[in-house]
Automatic annotation (TrEMBL):
NCBIfam families for this protein: PRK14822.1, RdgB/HAM1 family non-canonical purine NTP pyrophosphatase
Keyword Calcium found: no
Organism lineage string: Bacteria, Bacillati, Bacillota, Bacilli, Bacillales
Protein name: dITP/XTP pyrophosphatase
Reaction catalysed by this enzyme: ITP + H2O = IMP + diphosphate + H(+); dITP + H2O = dIMP + diphosphate + H(+); XTP + H2O = XMP + diphosphate + H(+)
Pfam families in the cross-refs: Ham1p_like
SUPFAM superfamilies: ITPase-like (SSF52972)
Cofactor: Mg(2+)
Organism: Gracilibacillus dipsosauri
EC identifiers of the protein: 3.6.1.66
Length: 196
């Protein structure tokens, strides 16, 4: 089976990608499969910049094609926060629960119609001797008032996709992967993936 390296250490993303790539018969390899990869500092101020930093660091190190995913939650009432800082919103230790609590507390007193938000996923593709390119997917929704659901990761337990009465964490992985920002970003890579 063909293999593709995704420059991530996030187990939730890895599970999403394993499922999203399985129809293409592509085996996903992550940074958890390769020993001794240090955390890559995400010094950019956009999803594109951070995705490129991650993809190029690993692609240059091994001389192979690499995809990276930089993603996050953009909340309108918080002027776009946590955005590119989603993973580190409540501190450097990247604690999903603490991040969720911080978003809910910042939104205290914000009415239902003002709780609009979207998940954004930018994929960067870095190939030897080629220029890095990007795709982007977004999933619109609203932020709830409490955590609900056991599936998924990150902010899934407080995110209601548009027209859904369930949070993303209440959906089975196959359901999430039909509507997610990650799925939409990967859809735009379909032609490229098929020629791998
Ligand atoms: O489908 C999702 N469902 C829920 N939450 C999500 C999703 N997609 C991204 N998120 C959140 C998780 C994390 O708080 C941030 C990503 O941060 P981001 O830097 O891209 O990833 P990360 O540091 O966890 O792993 P890595 O950089 O190794 O890929 O957005
Ligand atoms: Mg990160």
């Amino acid at each position: 089976m063909k293999e593709l390296i995704i420059a991530t250490k996030n187990k939730g993303k890895i599970r999403d990608f394993e499922q999203l790539f399985s129809p293409f018969s592509i085996q996903v390899k992550s940074l958890l499969d390769i020993e001794g990869i240090e955390d890559i500092e995400e010094t950019g101020s956009t999803f594109e910049e951070n995705a490129a930093i991650k993809a190029e660091a690993i692609s240059n190190k091994f001389g192979v094609t690499v995809i990276a995913d930089d993603s996050g939650l953009v909340v309108d009432a918080l002027n776009g926060a946590p955005g590119v800082y989603s993973a580190r919103y409540a501190g450097e230790d990247k604690d999903d629960q603490a991040n969720i609590e911080k978003v809910l507390s910042e939104l205290q007193g914000t009415s239902e119609e003002n709780r609009t938000a979207r998940f954004v996923c930018v994929l960067a593709v870095s190939q030897p001797a080629k220029e890095t390119f990007f795709t982007r997917g977004e999933c619109e929704g609203t932020i709830g008032y409490q955590v609900k659901g056991e599936h998924g990761f990150g902010y899934d337990p407080i995110f209601y996709p548009l027209n859904s009465r369930r949070t993303m964490a209440e959906m089975r992985p196959e359901e999430k992967n039909q509507i997610s920002h990650r799925k939409k970003a990967l859809d735009q890579l379909k032609k490229w993936v098929e020629q791998l």
